[in-house]
Design a protein that fits this description.
Beta-Lactamase, Arc Repressor Mutant, subunit A, GAF-like_dom_sf, 2 domains, ANTAR domain-containing protein, alpha+beta
């Protein structure tokens, strides 16, 4: 069985535990982590230059790492997407190139290396695959040829599923993935803050990110608190002014 066949078999085997089209991203991410020598994997797509949706992580640490990149606004995945090129980063490079992401990642996970690969084929330019490494593993343990093979298999599977899924007013079924649902809350919060504080979307997102980083919470959690009125616009604005 070659790597592409093994990947497909792993995706199929996960259907009993992660059923339904809305959980396909989680099955794909888990299969990547199972067939490659990595500790975890995360899948994300982009709907515009500044709108990134993490759709699935293979496990808890991978999910945290995906959310942290969105929360702090930097990281290998964002760089891979903007450049269109693979990014391989060990801990030293993470610390040097993305220090805020590095510090948050080290504080909350055992991940010390990231390989970020743009999706291939029909999904080129709209998504990325993150592969996460924990010691004693290294980003250099991974064959790039194998990583590209799996990325292509994932991209083909995902693109085929997207083409087959009926679209409703709210979009394709995979947008119902748990991670995408959490991210939808963020964009609702951005609109709420933008309107309430008369900020443009970029500044509203920056304000939410600052609150998340300053309170050691995920951006998703802060967005949910804003929408549930547990964090008022007045408190959010005051915290920004005082730096707390």
């Amino acid at each position: 069985m070659d790597l592409t066949q093994e990947f497909a078999a792993r995706v199929t085997a996960a259907e009993s535990e992660l059923p339904g089209p809305e959980l396909l991203p989680l099955r794909l991410a888990r299969a990547c982590a199972q067939v490659l020598p990595v500790a975890g994997a995360g899948l994300s797509v982009y709907f515009s230059a500044d709108r990134r949706l993490p759709l699935g992580g293979s496990g808890q640490a991978a999910g945290i790492a995906e959310r942290l990149q969105f929360t702090v606004g930097e990281g290998p995945c964002l760089t891979a997407h903007s450049s269109g090129n693979p990014v391989l980063a060990d801990e030293e490079e993470l610390r040097t190139r993305w220090p805020v992401f590095h510090d948050a990642l080290v504080a909350r996970t055992a991940i010390r290396g990231v390989i970020a690969l743009p999706l291939a084929g029909g999904l080129r330019g709209i998504g990325s695959l993150d592969l996460f490494v924990e010691p004693p593993g290294s980003v250099r343990d991974l064959s790039l040829a194998d990583a590209f093979t799996v990325t292509t298999a994932l991209s083909d599977s995902f693109a085929a599923a997207m083409d087959q899924e009926p679209r409703s007013e709210s979009g394709p079924a995979w947008l119902d993935a748990p991670a995408a649902g959490r991210r939808a809350l963020v964009w609702q919060a951005v609109g709420f803050v933008s309107t309430g504080l008369e900020l443009d979307s970029t500044d509203a997102l920056a304000l939410l990110r600052a609150q998340a980083y300053g309170s050691s919470r995920d951006l998703d959690e802060v967005a949910e608190a804003v929408l549930a009125d547990r964090l008022s616009l007045a408190d959010l604005s005051q915290a920004a002014e005082t730096g707390h």
